[in-house]
């Protein structure tokens, strides 16, 4: 018997809040619960000097980082869930098939070109170009992937995976070329995108994430039923009253926006979009009306936990979060691939 949607979403929300509170207390500057709530303005402060220090750590560093991490995790998990429904492929993930790499290439290209004499314009530095460039790169790679892997209303799993690997290799080659011609400062910035990290999260960057996340959440009621029916095939979905072409375009734009903006802030963080949807399908079923919001909550919780682990494993240094998610996600993906190997045929 499947749990009720309200129970699932309430449980995930409570679990997300618990993980976030735990993340607030852990770090180079530890803040126990006895001091956490006073620093958040929820109780009397035992020590004025310590309160000022805790407030500075929380509101300037830790809270914006946790909010940004939650938004990125939610968007990556949502993107993976939408892609798996759109391509009718349980192995789809924005990082795995080159979508995140395309966004990273767009961001890296912007980093290098912003200093080019013929392109550099002073006022452009005050515009959020990185999210726009990352969105454009993610959009182009997603559209190319769909065009290559789909034929006469059917999507080949083998061609999908091979095309994704080829697109990822191509965009990574472009990023490698940019690394070759970049100066020291640009090289550091590009390396940030390649490893994946949320250490540079600020309130300004967090504000950049929220519109894309909001767009993804608002799209759920419009695409959930279509993704459910798309499992039966495009023809069956069309005869059930779904405008398949509109569904495709809306899904691709939403995935590209969320992945591109997430990559522009955190760099490439893989496997969140493949781990979370699969674990949730096992427990709550494949219906997208519940699976999509649950994936957003699960992705936020997973990435906050991974980031907390990343900044404590080698404290005071930080392990790039992309390394952790890859170390856990790659074996998980291989397990899924072995389960699906009977379908991976040319």
CA distance, first residue to last residue: 37 Å
Q: What's the CATH first level?
A: Mainly Alpha
Structural class: mainly alpha
Instruction: Report the average pLDDT across residues.
Output: 84
According to CATH, what is the topology? ABC transporter involved in vitamin B12 uptake, BtuC
User: How much of the sequence is in beta strands?
Assistant: under 5%
How many separate structural domains? 1
- Total helix count? 13
Give structural notes.
The chain is mainly alpha-helical. The chain has one domain: ABC transporter involved in vitamin B12 uptake, BtuC (Orthogonal Bundle). The chain has helices at residues 5-25, 33-39, 48-86, 99-113, 129-149, 157-181, 184-195, 203-230, 234-239, 244-266, 272-284, 288-313, 321-339, and strands at residues 150-151, 154-155. A two-stranded antiparallel ribbon has the order 1-2. A hairpin with a 2-residue loop joins β1 and β2 (154-155). The protein is globular and about 70 Å long.
């Amino acid at each position: 018997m499947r749990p009720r949607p309200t129970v699932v979403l309430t449980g995930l929300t409570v679990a997300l809040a618990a993980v976030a509170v735990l993340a607030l207390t852990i770090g180079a500057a530890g803040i126990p619960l006895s001091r956490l709530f006073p620093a958040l303005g929820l109780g009397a402060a035992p020590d004025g000097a310590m309160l000022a220090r805790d407030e500075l750590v929380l509101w300037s560093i830790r809270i914006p980082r946790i909010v940004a991490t939650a938004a990125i995790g939610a968007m990556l998990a949502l993107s993976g869930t939408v892609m798996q429904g759109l391509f009718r492929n349980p192995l789809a993930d924005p990082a795995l098939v080159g979508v995140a790499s395309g966004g990273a290439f767009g961001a890296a290209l912007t980093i290098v070109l912003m200093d080019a004499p013929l392109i550099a314009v002073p006022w452009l530095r005050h515009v959020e170009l990185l999210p726009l460039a990352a969105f454009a790169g993610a959009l182009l790679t997603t559209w190319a992937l769909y065009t290559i892997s789909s034929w006469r209303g059917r999507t080949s799993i083998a061609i999908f995976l091979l095309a994704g690997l080829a697109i990822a290799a191509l965009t990574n080659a472009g990023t490698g070329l940019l690394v070759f011609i970049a100066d020291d400062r640009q090289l550091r910035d590009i390396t940030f995108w390649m490893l994946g990290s949320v250490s540079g999260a600020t309130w300004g960057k967090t504000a950049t994430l929220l519109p894309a996340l909001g767009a993804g959440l608002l799209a759920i009621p419009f695409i959930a039923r279509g993704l459910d029916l798309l499992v039966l095939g495009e023809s069956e979905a069309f005869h059930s009253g779904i405008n398949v072409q509109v569904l495709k375009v809306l899904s691709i734009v939403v995935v590209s926006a969320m992945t591109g903006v997430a990559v522009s802030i955190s760099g490439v963080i893989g496997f969140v979009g493949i781990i979370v949807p699969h674990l949730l399908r096992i427990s709550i079923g494949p219906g997208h009306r519940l699976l999509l919001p649950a994936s957003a909550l699960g992705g936020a919780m997973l990435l906050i936990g991974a980031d907390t682990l990343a900044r404590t494993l080698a404290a005071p240094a930080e392990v790039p979060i992309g390394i952790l998610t890859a170390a856990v996600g790659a074996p998980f993906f291989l397990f899924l691939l072995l389960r699906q190997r009977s379908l991976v045929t040319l």
